[in-house]
Amino acid sequence: MLLSIVIPVYNEAGNLQLTLQALQSELCKVGCDSEIVFVNDGSTDESQGILSGLAAADSTIKVLNFSRNFGQQAAITAGLDFASGDAVVIMDADLQDPPEILADMVKLYQQGYDVVSAQRVSREGEGLFKRLTASAFYWIMQRAVDRRIVPEVGDFRLLSRAAVLALRRFREQHRFMRGLVAWLGLKEAILPFRRSPRAAGETKYTLFKMIRLAWTAVASFSALPLRLSIAAGVALSLAGFGYFLFALYAALVLGRVVPGWTSLVFLQCLFSGVTLLALGLIGDYVARIYEEIKNRPLYVVSEILNA
Ligand code: UDP
Ligand code: MG
After folding, report:
1. Contact 66, 140 (CB under 8 A)
2. Is the beta carbon of 24 within 6 A of some atom in ligand 1?
3. E strand or H helix at 23, and its extent?
4. Which one, of 36, 28, 26, lies nearest residue 4 by Cα?
5. Is the pLDDT of residue 162 over 90?
6. Is the Cα dihedral 153, 156, 161, 165 positive or negative?
7. Between 158 and 231, residue with greater pLDDT
8. Antiparallel, parallel or unpaired: β 115-123 and 153-160
9. Do the beta carbons of residue 162 and residue 185 sit within 8 Å?
């Protein structure tokens, strides 16, 4: 069998050699044919030069250079489009995903699993904030995206040919690969591992990027936020109507004509706030529909080496 390894790369000059060495020594142990597909996602450091050198020295190393940065999800998509293996493993370029568990992944694949997902049982070198936001992320993903999403499973996983062929058919712009894999519903095995700190360099995922990914995931899988805004609108309207009845009662029965300026201003702000929020939400979905309908390519490859 042929095993493909897909690695998205964005400014990982300090990690590429290390990752490749660790990977190749594990691939020898796995004992099947292999190819490594590096997808250079518009790196601005020396990554491109290093990758060209690696590809020149070894024809099983394939390199796709993007014309600019398209994001990790697009890089993974390109890797899956080009990989020709019977099974494909997606992993990071920073050695946070240990190649040592590749052999176990392949064993599970040979037992008939279409998806073998690696689950982080520990996160070394990551602070309390990252851990808390990560658990909040998976909590929301299970509820708003797909309940088959397994907590602490990232993009590090093995996919069978069947899973890869199915994933290639998704051409949506706003992509969340973990959600797509869960959506397939193929037979999945979970393999626990300890996640080590980055070998070199810094994480490319700032808080803003993580929030953006989470919102993409939610908005591309469900219309729940739109429906929630209907519920909020109904609840607030009922509360407003109740307040109106109370004001009538106070004026007609109690004879208390309330000056009421403060409460009016308060209600005005509250209602226009909620209205704007709901409009913004609808606007966001409409913008996503617009981007989807344009049907642009998901990435642009400027150079392909060894493929
Ligand atoms: N990456 C990418 N494009 C981007 C951001 C990241 O291809 O725009 C790659 C990056 O080089 C790495 C992987 O995606 O191989 C995961 O990124 P990172 O390690 O920064 O994320 P973290 O592990 O901190 O969540
Ligand atoms: Mg990483």
Report:
1. no
2. no
3. helix 16-30
4. 36
5. yes
6. positive
7. 158
8. antiparallel
9. no
12 in contact with ligand 1, CB cutoff 6 A? yes
> For atom 12 of ligand 1, which residue has the closest CA?
92
pTM: 0.89
The tokens of 160 are what?
A: 């069978």
Sheet with 188-195, strands from edge to edge, namely 188-195, 115-123, 153-160, 87-90, 2-9, 33-40, 61-66, 301-305
CB-ligand 1 contact for 8 (6 Å cutoff): yes
- pLDDT tens digits for 111-141? 999 999 999 998 888 889 888 999 999 999 9
- The ligand that comes nearest to the alpha carbon of residue 93 is 1
With tokens 């509360």, the residue in question is 239
Choose the residue to mutate in 72, 202, 208 for probing ligand 1, maximizing ligand atoms within 8 Å of C-beta.
Answer: 72
Q: Give DSSP secondary structure letters for 127-193.
A: -HHHHHHHHHHHHHHHHHT-TTPPTTEEEEEEEEHHHHHHHHT---SS--HHHHHHHH---EEEEEE
Q: Are 287 and 52 in contact (CB under 8 A)?
A: no
pLDDT at 250: 82
3-class SS of residue 238: helix
Q: Ligand 2 centroid vs 87 CA: distance in angstroms?
A: 22
Distance 88 CA to ligand 1 centre (A): 18
Q: Which residues pair with 301 in a beta bridge?
A: 66
- Indicate the length of the chain as a whole number: 307
